[in-house]
User: Fold this.
Amino acid sequence: MADSIFTRIIRGEIPSHRLYEDDRVFAFLDIGPLSQGHALVVPKEPAETIDKLSDESAAAIGRCLPRLARAILKATGATAFNILQNNGRAAHQAVPHVHFHIIPRFENRPDGAGLEITWRAQKLESAAGADLARKIIANLAG
Ligand code: 5GP
Assistant:
């Protein structure tokens, strides 16, 4: 499989504005920011989607996200932020290498609404919910 563009960024073959690096994680500014400070946090492990990521890389990403989010909030003055993580084309994933977006949000700023969310909630029926929960729990060990 060809190296993803993010693997090439991690290796330094493609330039980026690096924000953080350790032995498992690399973070940098998104080239097409939805708002000021939009950053990407990427495991060095080249998993395509998060369900294929090792526990070790997942833990390393989990440690990095809050710290980087705090730094971005302080540096930009953002009042809120979204963490977005897309898996698969149907979920809007363009780069096939796990990545977390940190997208700062600014109230009352024209550049603060680059991300729009449409949330069409459906109803969870009780019996169907219980059945689905049982099935998911049965698959948690894998
Ligand atoms: P996705 O839709 O896969 O969740 O988002 C991929 C993100 O990667 C996009 O926000 C896009 O702007 C960013 N991106 C794609 N190529 C590059 C690049 O070469 N450099 C940087 N810094 N970001 C990139």
The chain has a mean pLDDT of 95.
